[in-house]
Design a protein that fits this description.
By secondary structure, this protein is α/β, with parallel strands linked by helices. Helix content is 50%, strand content 11%. The protein starts with 15 loop residues before the first strand and ends with a helix.
């Protein structure tokens, strides 16, 4: 239970959220209420191939809007993807509204494009918080995966093209003004994506619940996210067309994103980012590899909070870390770094890089470089 005598928080809700199966059909009306007529639709090749981008474009056109699609976003978007998107937007200038349609990568890239298109410069200029002096374009987020919760956050996670170091670029003006949560869109996600994004959302709920920046509002969101996600993860894997389960996962991921927005994350994400950059391992898989070890590392500091999460989801395991291991086993995921051909000689360097990750500074139990190396070795 959070001690209100020692905690302060500043909750600033500003995102209109529309939830429901087939709510994508409302995209045109919602877009017209914000701005128009020229719309930049930011998405990725997978969403184009699934026909979702074309459907969104048709809905916008039926609302008398002019959509222009930029679909060259890759997983873990870099500054190069943002620059390409800005170039596309300038070719079709003026742009009145930006829509991010896809997973966290598309939505983060849409935010990145908004930064540069409205404030100029390059993404490195916005590394940190509240560094954009000028107003930004109104925007809409439409997630097609239940994972990152990017649609609920003011930060864009963009990697430097040369080094692949991830930059968290945040500004309240970068938040989506409207979010559409349509569970039907997530049914097209491949099983590997459903697994990786689902684990990422679970990690968001758990890490934000115990971060040093947690407060009653963030814990409210994190606890409800966990309550939705924990019993539904395996259901969605077994029954991918189950819209009710998909809805629970999508709303849970969104609430976990809101929890991050009002608190922060922890060591599992700090460990995952260097691994993702060096080995191109999916972010969700990387986070899932470290999460049980981070929970065990933190347990003597925030064990009662972890127990609250176990009680909330009525887990069969009283041990939260064991439950995460069970989730990974049910999804057929690797349990160890060695299963992914990670070289032991790389562990010290990744541990060193993890110490520079902002998320790690919010871990409830402080970590030195030696502690990070311990977590890498435990995961190995």
């Amino acid at each position: 239970m959070t001690d209100l005598t020692t905690k302060t928080f500043n909750y600033d809700p500003s995102i209109r959220t529309v939830f429901g199966a087939n709510s994508l059909e409302q995209l045109g009306d919602l877009a017209r209420q914000l701005a128009g007529p020229r719309v930049l639709l930011v998405t990725d090749p997978g969403i184009v191939q699934a026909g979702i981008a074309a459907k969104a474009q048709t809905i916008l056109e039926q609302a008398a809007l002019e959509p222009f699609t930029f679909s060259e976003v890759a997983e873990n978007p870099t500054t190069a993807h943002v620059e390409q998107g800005v170039h596309c937007a300038r070719q079709h200038a003026p742009i009145d509204l930006i829509i991010g349609l896809g997973g966290g990568s598309a939505m983060d890239c849409a935010k990145g494009i908004n930064f540069i298109l409205t404030n100029g410069g390059k993404m490195e200029d916005y590394w940190g918080k509240n560094k954009a002096p000028q107003p930004m374009l109104p925007s809409i987020g439409v997630p097609t995966t239940a994972g990152t919760g990017s649609e609920a956050q003011s930060f864009a996670l963009i990697a430097q093209a040369e080094t692949h170091e991830k930059m968290a670029c945040g500004d309240r003006k970068a938040r989506f003004h409207t979010v559409i949560l349509d569970p039907a869109l997530t049914t097209s996600a491949p099983p590997t994506v459903t697994v990786a994004t689902g684990l990422d959302a679970i990690a968001h709920a758990i890490e934000s619940y115990v971060s040093t920046a947690h407060n009653p509002i963030s814990q409210l969101f994190a606890r409800e996210a966990w309550r939705l996600l924990a019993p539904t993860f395996t259901t969605v894997l077994a029954h991918p067309a189950d819209l009710e389960a998909r809805g629970h996962m999508l709303l849970g991921a969104h609430l976990a994103g809101m929890a991050i927005e009002n608190s922060m994350l922890g060591a599992a994400h700090a460990c995952a980012n260097p691994l993702t950059a060096r080995y191109s391992i999916s972010h969700g898989v990387a986070v899932g590899l470290f999460l049980p070890h981070v929970i065990r590392y933190n347990n003597h500091t925030v064990g009662p909070l972890y127990n609250e999460l176990c009680d909330t989801a009525q887990l069969t395991h009283a041990d939260l870390a064991a439950s995460i291991d069970q989730f990974k086993a049910s999804a057929g995921l690797p349990q160890r770094l060695r299963d992914l051909q990670v070289e032991t000689s790389d562990l010290p360097q990744m541990a060193h890089q993890a110490t520079d990750q902002w998320t790690g500074t919010f871990n409830p139990r402080p970590l030195t470089e030696a502690d990070f190396l311990y977590l890498y070795e435990a995961a190995y």
